[in-house]
Amino acid sequence: MKVKVDAIKQSLNVKSAENEENVIVIGNQKYDLSLTEFIEIEMESDKQVDLDNFTITKNVFLVAANGFEYNNTSCKSGYFQNGIFICQNHLPCSDGGKTTDGRCAECQDVNCVMCDGDNGNCMKCKDNLTYNTKSNTCEEYTNCLSFTEDKCLRCVDGFVFKGNNCVDITEGNGNCQIKVGVPSECRMCDLTNITLINTNGVCSVVHSNVVVHSLSNVVECKDGFFVQNNICNDCTTNNEGSLLCSFKTTEKCDKTYYVREDGSVCVKNECSDGTNNEENGKCAPQIDNCIKYVNGMCVECSSKYSYDGNVSCVEPSTVDVNCGMATPSGCIRCDGNTFLNISTHKCEVCNSSCESCLDLTKCLSCVDGYFLSDHICKSNDELNDTCARKVPNGNGCLVCKVGYYKKGADCAQCDVECGECLTENSCIKCNATNYKTSNGDCFPRSAISTCAVEVTESGCSTCKDGYYTVNGNECQKCVEGCAKCSESTRCTSCDDTYVLKSTSCVSYNTITKCTKTKDSKCSSCTFWYSPSDDGTFCSKTAVWWVILLIVVIIILITVLFIVLVLFVMVKVIKHKRDTSKITLFKLEHTNMKFVEMADGLIIHTKNEEFLITDDDLDENEIDVNKQIKNLFSIGNTTNHKVKIQFTSKTNEKYYISFDPHIITIPPNYGCEFSLFLTPLCNSNMESSFVINYFIFANDSKTCIHQMDFKYITKISTRLDPDSLIEEKQLGEGSFGVVFKGKLGGNTVAIKKMKNVTNAKDQMAEFEKEVSMLDKFRCDYIVHFYGAVFFPNKICMVTEFAEFGSVCDMLKNKDAKDVDMKLRIKMCLDATKGVSYLHKNGILHRDIKPDNVLLFSLNPNDVVNGKLTDFGSSRNINMMMTNMTFTKGIGTPIYMAPEVLNKEKYKMPCDIYSLAISFFEIIGWAEPFPKKRFKHPWEIADFVGKGNHLTYDENFGIETQEMINSMWDIKPKKRILCDEIVKRLKTIFSKFHKNV
Question: CA geometry: angle at 274 spanning 270 and 279, to 5°?
Answer without folding.
Answer: 55
